[in-house]
Amino acid sequence: NNILIIHCICSGPLTKLHIEHDNSGWRPKWYLEKIEVVNLSDNSSTNFPCEKWLDKDSGDQLIERDLYPRD
């Protein structure tokens, strides 16, 4: 599991996340199960499922995706 903490000003509910990588480095492919965003002020969370590879040689060969929240 990888955890990334980003501090930002809340401007309303998140409706979409865009994720991508530059396909550089040794073995750059990675599988993204989901992104979970946690609001630390009220401990609420929103899941953005993906369940796909971000890889130019696997699956649909995309290294960027738009993710939408799952209720």
Structure description:
The chain is mainly β. Helix content is 0%, strand content 41%. It contains no helices and 4 strands. The strands form 2 sheets. It has a two-stranded antiparallel ribbon with strand order 1-4. Strands 2-3 form a two-stranded antiparallel sheet. The protein starts with 16 loop residues before the first strand and ends with a strand.
In what range is the share of β-strand residues? 35-45%
Elements, N to C (H/E): EEEE
**Low-confidence runs:** none
Strand order of the largest sheet: 1-4
Judging from the principal axes of the Cα atoms, what is the shape? elongated
Number of helices: 0
- What structural class results from the helix and strand content? mainly beta
For the biggest sheet, the summary is: 2 strands, antiparallel
Radius of gyration: 14 Å
The total of beta strands comes to: 4
Mean pLDDT: 88
Helix content: under 10%
State the distance separating the first and last CA atoms.
22 Å
Give a quick precis of the structure.
It contains no helices and four strands. The chain is mainly β and 71 residues long.
Topology:
Blueprint: E1 17-20, E2 30-39, E3 44-54, E4 64-67
Please name the defining characteristics of this protein:
71 residues; mainly beta; two-stranded antiparallel ribbon; 4 strands; 41% strand; elongated
